[in-house]
Q: What sequence folds into this?
């Protein structure tokens, strides 16, 4: 048990994640992604996905989420991947541990096409809860495209704290008087202004940029699971597609940053982190999961 593999900035531990988490220095990890146990009750050949009732499962997660928060860098982000069984419980737990202001979004990832179920709607998506340690300072790299886009920086309705008067390009904008509010904070607006992206049209603020909008519905074909639920798995039963991790790691970390996954599985996070030039730390209680991950990391190393 303990450190299982270390090479080229990637470390894999064969141990319970709570043990590893307790040993991590405070503020040392830039980005955490965990595809946690969904608590389906299913038994796989190398681990059991059964944590008891939702309340029991929540208490199992509590010290782990607390330690993840402690280990996160002051401007770090965390993405917790779960599904309908645990998502509401995890949302409340994360709100308690991180604070409601640190919640950024709930991402819906379509994992499969309709399969046809009995007397119910087919579950086709899972959920990624996205939090940051500090809502005023975190990494979010917007994806840049070629097309110019104009996006309003306001919405209708007065909103406390967001209907303040601001000066844009030397002109005073009083959204409260127009019964509107700002969609961005003062520092975010300042960044956009600094980049020369903000313009007023009929006295209202708009952003002109080449940023590709990314919504919280991730339903592209590249986001679908690559395995089927009935075939025999080749290396690992339930890997997430690399596209999910590619998007998260590109947006929420910098090259050279430390990315962590405390529920390694087939090592998708480790693989994508390595491909994108990030350092990696991760663990799994299953030797098979560690072996599969190490095999993939070594293959990338040899191919590079
Ligand atoms: C859903 S799988 C992760 C799949 C992964 N995202 C992928 O792309 O392959 C969850 C993993 O968590 C591991 N696990 C379960 N309990 C754990 C614990 N207490 N500490 C560390 N890993 C654990 C299981 O062995 C399993 O490999």
A:
């Amino acid at each position: 048990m303990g450190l299982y593999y270390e090479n080229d900035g990637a470390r894999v531990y064969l141990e319970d994640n709570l043990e590893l988490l307790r040993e991590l220095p405070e503020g040392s990890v830039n980005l955490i992604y965990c595809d946690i146990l969904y608590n389906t009750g299913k038994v796989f050949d190398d681990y059991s996905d059964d944590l008891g009732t939702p309340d029991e499962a929540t208490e199992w997660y509590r010290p782990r989420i607390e330690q993840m928060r402690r280990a996160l860098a002051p401007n770090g982000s965390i993405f917790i991947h779960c599904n309908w069984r645990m998502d509401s419980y995890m949302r409340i737990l994360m709100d308690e541990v991180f604070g409601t202001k640190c919640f950024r979004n709930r991402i819906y990832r379509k994992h499969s096409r309709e399969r046809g179920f009995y007397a119910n709607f087919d579950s086709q998506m899972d959920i990624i809860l996205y939090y940051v340690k500090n809502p005023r300072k975190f990494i979010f790299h917007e994806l840049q495209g070629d097309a110019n886009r104009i996006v309003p920086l306001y919405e209708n309705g007065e909103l406390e704290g967001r209907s303040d008067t601001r000066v844009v390009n030397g002109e005073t904008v009083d959204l409260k008087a127009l019964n509107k509010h700002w969609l961005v904070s003062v520092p975010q607006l300042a960044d956009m202004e600094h980049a020369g992206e903000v313009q007023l049209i009929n006295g209202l603020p708009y952003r002109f940029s080449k940023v590709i909008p990314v919504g919280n519905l991730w339903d592209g074909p590249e986001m679908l699971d690559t395995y089927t639920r009935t075939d025999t798995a080749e290396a690992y039963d339930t890997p997430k597609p690399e596209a999910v991790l590619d998007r998260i790691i590109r947006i929420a970390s910098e090259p050279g940053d430390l990315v962590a996954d405390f529920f390694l599985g087939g090592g998708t996070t480790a693989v994508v982190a390595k491909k994108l030039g990030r350092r990696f730390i991760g663990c799994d209680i299953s030797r098979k999961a560690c072996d599969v991950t190490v095999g993939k990391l070594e293959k990338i190393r040899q191919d590079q």
